[in-house]
Amino acid sequence: MAQDVRNIIVGAAAVYVTSNAGDSRLTGGDFPTPVSGTAYGTTVTADSSWREVGLTTGGVELSYEPNYGEVTVDQLLDAARLFKQSQRVTVKTTLTEGTLENMNLVFGQKATQLTQANSLTTLNLTGGALGEAPAERSLIFIGQAPYKFGSRTYDSTKSKERVYVARRVIQMETVAHALKRDGATEFPVNFRCLQDTTITDGSDYGYILDRVYA
Question: Helix, strand, coil: what percent of the chain each, to 5?
């Protein structure tokens, strides 16, 4: 492929999570369908199942971590064969809007732990129970797309975006935040992505779209 500096991606991503009460991840193909001529963020925002987490710091990091075992034999100095024995997919970011919705998200609790009555909003912190499954959500983040899509190229005036969809995510890492005189209160969050075993088309973790919408 010829070199093209327009394929260098620069720019922050917008992050959305499911926000329905309880265990709010979506199943199967129940994700917002891209609409021609419309930015995907507009489509997601119009769906009441989703909310934008707001401003972030340090970008969004997608990590794919395969782990391979190896077979060694007497006749070779190096491994004769490698085989995948596990893998881990994570999404990391830092939330900078100090809302109780975001705090509940980084604590990995269900949306039902957050209640509102008149002018009082309460986030209940629960200890849970032994063997209790963590709250699962679905995650979408939208950023800039490269200029080229395979062998296809588009006019530089076209609006393009890259959409990342994670079917099942769980926040299960230690988190901490500080109230500081000279800095924002930030919530670092590390989502562990899991497979949706009901999906049979190869996108059981999720999928990534490059699209031109206008």
Answer: 10, 40, 50
To the nearest whole number, what is the mean pLDDT of the chain?
Answer: 90
- The pLDDT confidence band at residue 159, using thresholds 50, 70 and 90, is confident
Phi, psi of 123 (to 5 degrees): -110, 110
**Would you state the structure tokens that stand for residue 2, as one six-digit string?**
């010829």
Q: For the chain, where are the alpha helices, taking DSSP H only? A: 40-45, 100-106
Three-state SS at 19: coil
**What's the pTM?**
0.90
E strand or H helix that includes residue 178? none
Mean pLDDT of 85-90: 96
Long-range contacts of 125-134 (CB under 8 A, 24+ apart): 134/108, 134/170, 134/171, 134/172
Antiparallel, parallel or unpaired: β 152-153 and 148-149: antiparallel
Strand partners of residue 204: none
Are 13 and 60 contacting, i.e. CB atoms less than 8 angstroms apart? yes
The pLDDT value recorded for residue 125 is: 92
Q: Report the pLDDT averaged over residues 69-85.
A: 96
* Cα–Cα distance measured from residue 9 to residue 25, given in angstroms and rounded to the nearest whole number: 29
- DSSP states of 132-157: PPPP-EEEEEEE---SEETTEE--TT
Rounded to the nearest angstrom, the gap between the alpha carbon of residue 180 and the centroid of all alpha carbons in its chain is 28
Residue type, 29: G
Strands 160-171, 187-194: pairing is antiparallel
